[in-house]
Amino acid sequence: MDNSKLIRMANQIGAFFAAMPDRAEALEGIALHIHRFWEPRMRRELMAHIDATNGDGLDDIVATALRAHRAELV
Predict the structure, then answer these.
(1) Average pLDDT, the chain
(2) End-to-end CA, the chain
(3) What's the whole-model pTM score?
Protein backbone atom coordinates (compact mmCIF):
# COMPACT_ATOMS: atom_id res chain seq x y z
CA MET A 1 0.00 0.00 0.00
CA ASP A 2 1.14 3.53 -0.74
CA ASN A 3 2.51 5.26 2.38
CA SER A 4 0.61 8.44 1.53
CA LYS A 5 -2.66 6.53 1.88
CA LEU A 6 -1.59 5.06 5.22
CA ILE A 7 -0.56 8.50 6.46
CA ARG A 8 -3.84 10.06 5.35
CA MET A 9 -5.89 7.31 7.03
CA ALA A 10 -3.84 7.51 10.24
CA ASN A 11 -4.25 11.30 10.33
CA GLN A 12 -8.02 10.94 9.89
CA ILE A 13 -8.10 8.59 12.87
CA GLY A 14 -5.95 11.04 14.80
CA ALA A 15 -8.28 13.94 13.98
CA PHE A 16 -11.20 12.01 15.44
CA PHE A 17 -9.42 11.16 18.67
CA ALA A 18 -7.74 14.59 19.01
CA ALA A 19 -11.09 16.02 20.10
CA MET A 20 -11.00 13.95 23.28
CA PRO A 21 -10.26 16.01 26.39
CA ASP A 22 -7.93 13.37 27.88
CA ARG A 23 -4.77 13.22 25.73
CA ALA A 24 -3.60 9.90 27.15
CA GLU A 25 -6.97 8.37 26.32
CA ALA A 26 -6.77 9.84 22.81
CA LEU A 27 -3.30 8.38 22.24
CA GLU A 28 -4.45 4.98 23.42
CA GLY A 29 -7.58 5.23 21.25
CA ILE A 30 -5.54 5.94 18.12
CA ALA A 31 -3.23 2.98 18.74
CA LEU A 32 -6.09 0.68 19.67
CA HIS A 33 -8.07 1.58 16.55
CA ILE A 34 -5.08 0.95 14.30
CA HIS A 35 -4.33 -2.32 16.09
CA ARG A 36 -7.91 -3.57 15.80
CA PHE A 37 -8.79 -2.50 12.29
CA TRP A 38 -5.56 -2.42 10.29
CA GLU A 39 -3.98 -5.59 9.02
CA PRO A 40 -0.45 -6.35 10.26
CA ARG A 41 1.14 -5.45 6.91
CA MET A 42 -0.35 -1.95 7.07
CA ARG A 43 0.85 -1.48 10.66
CA ARG A 44 4.35 -2.67 9.76
CA GLU A 45 4.52 -0.27 6.80
CA LEU A 46 3.39 2.65 8.96
CA MET A 47 5.96 1.84 11.65
CA ALA A 48 8.67 1.50 8.98
CA HIS A 49 7.69 4.94 7.73
CA ILE A 50 8.15 6.35 11.25
CA ASP A 51 11.56 4.69 11.50
CA ALA A 52 12.70 5.91 8.08
CA THR A 53 11.35 9.46 8.16
CA ASN A 54 10.68 10.19 11.82
CA GLY A 55 6.96 10.27 11.00
CA ASP A 56 7.09 12.78 8.15
CA GLY A 57 3.52 13.71 7.18
CA LEU A 58 1.92 12.29 10.29
CA ASP A 59 0.12 14.63 12.65
CA ASP A 60 1.91 15.01 15.97
CA ILE A 61 -0.79 13.21 17.94
CA VAL A 62 -0.63 10.21 15.59
CA ALA A 63 3.16 9.96 15.63
CA THR A 64 3.16 10.26 19.42
CA ALA A 65 0.50 7.55 19.77
CA LEU A 66 2.35 5.17 17.47
CA ARG A 67 5.65 5.65 19.25
CA ALA A 68 4.08 5.28 22.70
CA HIS A 69 2.22 2.09 21.77
CA ARG A 70 4.76 0.61 19.35
CA ALA A 71 4.99 -2.74 21.14
CA GLU A 72 1.26 -3.31 20.71
CA LEU A 73 1.34 -2.44 17.01
CA VAL A 74 4.23 -4.53 15.69
Answers:
(1) 96
(2) 17
(3) 0.93
